[in-house]
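WARN no homologs supplied; continuing
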Amino acid sequence: MTVERVLLAVLVVVLSALASGHALVFKRDPRSAIAWVVFIWLLPTVGPLAYLLLGINRMQRRAHALRAGDVARAALPARAIELPSALIDALGSDDGHLLALARATACLTDAPLCAGNRVLPLDDGDATYPAMQRAIDAAARSVVLCSYIFDADEVGRALADTLVRAAARGVAVRVLVDDVGRRYSWPSILRPLRAGGVRAAAFLPTLSPLRAPLANLRNHRKICVVDGRVAFTGGLNIRDEHVLARAQRDATADLHFQVEGPLVAELFAVVAEDWRFTTGEALDGPTWHVEQGAPGAVWARVLADGPESQRDPIRWTLLAALAVARRSVRIATPYFVPDQGLITALCAAALRGVDVDVLLPVRGNIRLAQWAQTALLWQTLEHGCRVHLQPAPFDHTKLMVVDDAWALVGSANWDARSLRLNFEVDVECYDHALAGELARRFDAKRARSRPVTLAEVDGRALPIKLRDGAARLFAPYL
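OK structure emitted
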């Protein structure tokens, strides 16, 4: 054996040892670690290279470098969380168990649990866009808006005109649109906004081949803050199809929220940081002053999440909510591809006697995601969870209601793209009136839906099962 071959063999062994060692240390799922170690040593040349390309989670590393720098991991605060007595009184003895959820979310984020908020549900674009336009037309100082999609269609141009009018009368206007989301229509809405005097920017441009790997680090948040006084957030993008009164072929239902109170400051902090990261401009000073007040009775907290987060606050909030639920859990989501931990938590809640209902569109707008979703449904159905398929229009609503006293709303879906790959914002709300109203809306949609049975899922033809099972392999990226 020549010296070159010996050196090559030593190099391969060293690379295999390094790759398998990395898998053993950093892979959270032992099954994944075992699979990679076996693959690396069975194919000593191909295995380490495959692990280098596919096995290392670069998404989180890129996000850390982009948003927060490479910082050391910090343990969750090992401290007792003292909750306000007013929250305890508001929940009452019947829902005192939700205090454990409030303690959990306090550990997951530095955002405070704010009292005195008014949170108003807005149905679809029919109610949301006019409310946003009225607020912007009344703006005296500032408007900042962040959206994943902002189409240059009739709805988008009308809102853009409203923003341009505000800028023309001296209002400071900032608009941030995700670079991938802005390409849903062409030409981009950024052009007429900039021409009208609005400062508008794209989040993480991806045209450069060097930045193409960042295509998964998308800003999926939807936030608009006007004069630091009123905010809008939820799941609604800005496009024609969300106006149901027009009865378009691709009509898309959704739920958005108008917010007033201390929560506005927390939402502003999220969008201001996104704007600063993108443009370098800090939104501070009198123009961007956030008003303080307590116009409502809702206790609420902002959960800003993204691949740079060490704590995965939205995913862990879902798990904590399922763990404390006693009576009912209602979930509405357009994309239901949960990981095994969330599936286990759903099933555990159902086995404890909690009514777990999941509301999904009968026909999704992303076929691969719907196939993967179907392949996973049996795991929830066989343990007592109930799944309902809602007829058209396609419903893009993201909602979770627990025990008619706690609600989670915002931009995140029940899939890896929202819980691992994208920047999201949700709001948790403690209030019987709001949660009860959202539960009634959920129940009305469920009454129009049809239940999915385990026999139906098991009865799919073999080719369909194979197709759905193959799609499920892509669940970590859907």
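Residues 3-56 form one domain.
OK
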